[in-house]
Amino acid sequence: MRKTKKLVSTALTIIMTLGIVIGNRATAYAASNMTVDCKSVIREATHCANGSLYGLTENTPGDINGLVAPLHPYVFRNPARGSNGNQHPYGDAIKVAKRLANVPTAKVSIDLADMLPYWPYKWPGMDGWLNQVASFINDKKASGCNNWYGYEIWNEPDGTFKNNGVSFEQMWKQTYDLIKRLDPNEKIIGPCDSWYNHNRMRSFLQFCKANNCVPDIMSWHELSGVGGISGHIKAYRALERELGIRELPISINEYCDPEHNLEGQPGSSARFIGKFERYKIDSAAISWWFTGAPGRLGSLLATNTQKGAGWYFYKWYGDMTGNMVNVTPPNDDSDKVDGAACVDNNRQYISFIFGGPNDGIINTTFRNIPSFISSKAKVTIEKIDWVNKDAVSYGPTTVSSSVYNVVNGQINVSLPNCNSSSGYRIYITKADGSQNSGNNQQVQGIQSGGIYKLFNRNSGKALGVHVNSTQNGANVIQWRENGQTSQLWKLTDTGYGYRITNVNANKELDVEKVSSDDGANIDLWQDNGQTNQRWFIRKTNDGYYVIENINSGKVLDVDHGSNQDGANVIQWYSNNGYNQQWRLVKVN
């Protein structure tokens, strides 16, 4: 997909079918039924679908730590050259790779054809093309970057490569050989067709096998509807077996609903993520239909600086750890509701994200519930609502939080009043909150209702309140231990994170103005039930604790790693710094 393609705008009709919830089940006229098998492991969590085409440029988004890193992104797809005279004047792969140097999960896939001008590309002749490829490879190797996914030799050759004295196959072979000679350790990706055409794929692979130029990573786009994805992957895998080609990693390097305005929509995205995980896709990049707005992570951002609903849905996905497990949707070969699930045995939680067209009620059966849940499960259901791709979102809401009896290793969770555009998450932990969980973060050894002192690992100073204030907005600081009750904190397990209450003021540890920004101030405020006053607590391997705000995903941090009395306490993205770790000492 490129800048000359036209957008198609249609009305999205959301049909909601109401149901009545009774206990753990629902009665309804119709329902969409899914199953999560917690014992059926697919693979470790990879966040394969957390990537985008031109989702990151040289300058946008500006806040890498706040808007990009929290998603645990995987592959960004960028042009080899981004400057005037090329296909796009921005998104230069080397510059973007440098911006991502401190995001350990992120890699850059290099679209070589985007060095050329116009659309379809203006072919410079074989010699001119190979010279440009060699020049880029030299610059790439000199950049010092090592966060590369590979080289895409061409983009959408089924529509953009014209036979100007050389066939696509001939161009592929010569370019392949050049890359293997100049940069032999880098992966080669292709053919990057605009859609899956079985006969064309057969011809391409037959040529590659006969001429010793089989790509390291297979790729094509999925832009014609999610319902065909499973059939395409099955057909491709059968073709590999037929031709005697080893099973290659698959990159779906552009994906989006046929209704392009749904790019980044939680309900639409859930179905792609579900299928990509189920079929072990190696990487996938959200498309880029809205050519006037590069750098928005595939419409996950509503503006260059503000989050859309899609950002929060992909944050749920990026937060998944442990093993991805099998999800059975109502129909794998359709565009109906679908999703992805993980089980983390170490952090002791189950997370299931889902969405898409449904019958109004979505029933999910969780089978083979792991033993760490025991006989009662704490089930928290959240949703993130979507208006349109340009609407700023302020995060998910909690639909319910309930305790379910685990019977014969399973529970049934019914969610009424669902729609096709929202994204949903079911998050399951042990009901007594004693587990060391992933996002819930209740940790063994913390007594709910207990009084604690919190000492910063870096400075050794205690978490306290400026001049022992008891007012709303009182500033939270660090100070040497002084015996004041303003340095005492009551930790209360809410079932979904902790309230951290200052004993002296009887007010909550609070992120000022419900901010999600790095550097946002920490203060005290009367309890209002909002997630900027709720905190996940997780234990490090060496006995300290990291305290994460539920609203922002940022952690409690002493500004600039200061050792001084009175140093300000803020929130900041987690970077494993000692100034973000705390020792908890129970005093009562």
What does this structure look like?
The protein has 588 residues and is of the alpha/beta class. It is built from nine helices and 31 strands. The strands form seven sheets. It has a nine-stranded mixed β-sheet with strand order 17-16-19-14-13-12-3-15-18. Helix 6 packs parallel to helix 7. The longest helix is centred in the N-terminal third of the chain and has 17 residues. The radius of gyration is 25 Å and the shape is globular. The N terminus is likely disordered.
Topology:
Blueprint lengths: L18 E4 L2 E4 L3 E13 L7 E2 L10 H5 L6 E5 L13 H7 L7 E5 L14 H17 L5 E5 L4 H4 L7 H15 L5 E6 L4 H13 L6 E6 L6 H15 L6 E6 L10 H13 L4 E4 L22 H10 L4 E6 L9 E7 L4 E7 L6 E6 L8 E9 L12 E9 L5 E5 L7 E8 L19 E7 L5 E4 L10 E4 L9 E5 L4 E5 L4 E5 L10 E4 L9 E5 L5 E5 L5 E4 L10 E4 L9 E5 L2
Parallel strand pairs: 3-15, 4-5, 5-6, 6-7, 7-8, 8-9, 9-10, 10-11
Antiparallel strand pairs: 1-2, 3-12, 12-13, 13-14, 14-19, 15-18, 16-17, 16-19, 20-23, 20-31, 21-22, 23-24, 24-25, 25-26, 27-28, 29-30
Helix pairs in contact: 3-5, 6-7
